[in-house]
């Protein structure tokens, strides 16, 4: 007999990092910022009565602030419910070809999930033996290109010329550079959006801006790309970004001083932590993100992962090809990293 | 030459009701609730520092509250960023057949937009001459069924037996009943979800619960339907509902007394307003929603619409087949409706 189950879109869903209810956990598994957002959010009064009204569908307040901050036009900014929403919309809007889209084999683990859910053909291009993206792999015919810079979970950055070569070689594809982690030491390719109409740069408030709880992401590109994105977005859900996100999100953008100070702290903690990891016998990839990707010379990554979890320190580990020897560790506060170092000393010496 | 524009998903986007920046406007165009949400939201303290963390991807706090309120299991509740997000996910998840889905020709104007964006074939079934849904139309082979109850923009309600007959006749399709307006005088078909595994009931916080600004919607059905929905949702965006929505949304559910009191006020204002409209020569469809759909016997709907707009009263008018003679007017406060009545008296007498 026919059943409604015959018509279901079945997918292998993305599994996000654990969000433990236990507040004693040291949470270094989802690349959250250890420092809160700018205190400017405390100065904003949310008018509860106003929640009865729909938010501004165009999110003008936030779009205008972001345009001003980045010195581009408001028509060049698209906002969404986290960069996941933004990139998901990009997949729907721009990756409509029968040709495969390209992204690295080791990268943000949502790309193949989106490709599957939207039935987009794709090819995963192998990183080299040092986990570097191979530029030439992205010069073949394709239906679109996406990768993060710095890449995740490796943390490895490529420079502007590297990306410009790829964008220039692919005028028939939209190239999306996911700059979720760019503020932690990388150089943005944003200046290229006025030179190439097929380049889209994606950002998030969830990492450097410390607002993962609000779900704010955005894309920047030429106004035509942004218009196509908005057309699809308005056809899926006209009002996605809610009033608190618009208000709180807009409030923090001006506080550049606080923003820079937390970035400096995270970068300095990262550099110190990398030194300690190396001292303990870890191979650490060169990270320009707020996390490091590291593998111990003798102790199994899953053993470290499970032992840390017992001690209430959560990091990230994937039982996936090529990276099962590695742990992705978010940079927390100095105190959190000291605690972790001390646990790693025990684990790596005890089992040696 | 090939261009990235060859691969764009182009769509005719949905046009939402205007959101004027002018706060002196009487806004009766988007079916917002004239009364604010329960004062319980003011008792909640949002910890700004906590915004640095991702929200709970499972939205357990809100899901559990809703399950308790409706006396069903948490596994029977799916939440999304407004009912638009929920229904959009339903289209993606459940309407995957090559057979056309069915919905009325006069109904929520987003259904055909979603069908277009997701490339789903559809047939719009003609309402009868009194704008009633014709049950028998939904007994043919199809890939899914959706309609609002009460229907929008007509406001006309069907009873539980009517819907049960359709659900029973379509075991091979998921039937979605969009109950966005059910609280304003209708009877929910929610009890049927334990009897039929192909029925999904959708609700929103944007109308009766007065929280359009937070973007909260939810669906209820058997746990298998909900699981399929969650699998697709986690594959599109794992963290859609932000922390303020989870916290504020959960806070108001217990305040049944305030909820009921605002519903009573809106219903009583509606009944009085309908009487006035009839007195002024309007044909008014029998509404069980927080809006009415009305056509004047002699004055052109667009003339009324434009004149009201000049006077800073916004209502909704569609230049669309069958309904271009009608206005959809949201029920506001008594004061707002008095102002509107007085303007309508001028317009309909002056042009007579």
What does this entry look like structurally?
Chains A, B: GO terms for molecular function: histidinol-phosphate transaminase activity; pyridoxal phosphate binding. Two copies of one chain form a homodimer. Chain A has 352 residues and is an alpha/beta fold. Chain A has two domains: 4-36 and 256-350, Aspartate Aminotransferase, domain 1 (Alpha-Beta Complex), CATH 3.90.1150.10; 40-252, Type I PLP-dependent aspartate aminotransferase-like (Major domain) (Aspartate Aminotransferase, domain 2), CATH 3.40.640. Chain A is built from ten helices and twelve strands. In chain A, the strands form four sheets. Chain A has a five-stranded mixed β-sheet, sandwiched between helices. In chain A, a hairpin with a 6-residue loop joins strand 9 (282-284) and strand 10 (291-296). In chain A, helix 2 packs parallel to helix 7 (243-252), helix 3 (82-94) packs across helix 6 and helix 8 runs parallel beside helix 10. The mean pLDDT of chain A is 95. At the A-B interface, helix 3, helix 4, helix 6 and helix 7 of A face helix 3, helix 4, helix 6 and helix 7 of B.
Q: Please, how many helices of chain A?
A: 10
Largest beta-sheet characterization of chain A: 5 strands, mixed
Rg of chain A over CA atoms, rounded to whole Å, is 21 Å
Strand content of chain A: 5-15%
Q: Would you identify the CATH architecture of the largest domain in chain A? A: 3-Layer(aba) Sandwich
Mean pLDDT of chain A: 95
Low-confidence stretches of chain A are none
Percent of residues of chain A in helical segments?
A: 25-40%
Strand order of the largest sheet of chain A: 2-8-7-6-5
Family (chains A, B): Belongs to the class-II pyridoxal-phosphate-dependent aminotransferase family. Histidinol-phosphate aminotransferase subfamily.
Catalytic activity (chains A, B): L-histidinol phosphate + 2-oxoglutarate = 3-(imidazol-4-yl)-2-oxopropyl phosphate + L-glutamate
Modified residues (N6-(pyridoxal phosphate)lysine) (chains A, B): 207
Subunit structure (chains A, B): Homodimer.
């Amino acid at each position: 007999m026919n059943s409604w189950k015959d018509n279901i879109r079945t997918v292998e869903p993305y599994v996000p990092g654990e969000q433990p209810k236990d507040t004693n956990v040291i949470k270094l598994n989802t690349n959250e910022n250890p420092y809160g957002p700018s205190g400017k959010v405390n100065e904003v009064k949310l008018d509860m009565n106003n929640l009865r009204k729909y938010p501004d569908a165009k999110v003008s307040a936030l779009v205008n602030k972001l345009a001003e901050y980045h010195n581009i036009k408001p028509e060049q900014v698209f906002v969404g419910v986290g960069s996941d929403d933004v990139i998901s919309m990009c997949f729907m809007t721009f990756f409509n070809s029968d040709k495969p889209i390209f992204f690295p084999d080791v990268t943000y683990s949502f790309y193949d999930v989106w490709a599957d859910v939207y039935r987009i053909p794709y090819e995963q291009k192998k990183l080299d033996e040092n986990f570097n993206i191979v530029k030439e792999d992205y010069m073949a015919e394709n239906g679109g290109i996406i990768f993060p810079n710095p890449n995740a979970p490796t943390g490895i950055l490529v420079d502007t010329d590297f990306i410009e070569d790829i964008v220039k070689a692919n005028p028939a594809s939209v190239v999306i550079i996911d700059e979720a982690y760019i503020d932690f030491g990388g150089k943005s390719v944003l200046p290229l959006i006025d030179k190439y109409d097929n380049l889209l740069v994606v950002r998030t408030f969830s990492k450097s801006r410390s607002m993962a709880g609000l779900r704010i992401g955005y894309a920047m590109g030429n106004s035509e790309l942004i218009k196509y994105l908005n057309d699809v977005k308005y056809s899926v859900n006209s009002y996605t970004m809610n009033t608190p996100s618009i208000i709180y999100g807009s409030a923090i953008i001006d506080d550049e001083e606080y923003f820079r100070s937390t970035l400096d702290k995270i970068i300095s903690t990262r550099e110190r932590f990398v030194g300690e990891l190396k001292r303990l016998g870890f191979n650490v990839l060169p990270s320009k993100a707020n996390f490091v990707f590291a593998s111990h010379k003798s102790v199994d990554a899953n053993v470290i992962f499970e032992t840390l979890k017992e001690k209430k320190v959560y990091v990230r580990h994937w039982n996936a090809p090529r990276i099962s020897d590695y742990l992705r560790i978010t940079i927390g506060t100095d105190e959190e990293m000291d605690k972790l170092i001390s646990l790693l000393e025990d684990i790596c010496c005890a089992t040696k």
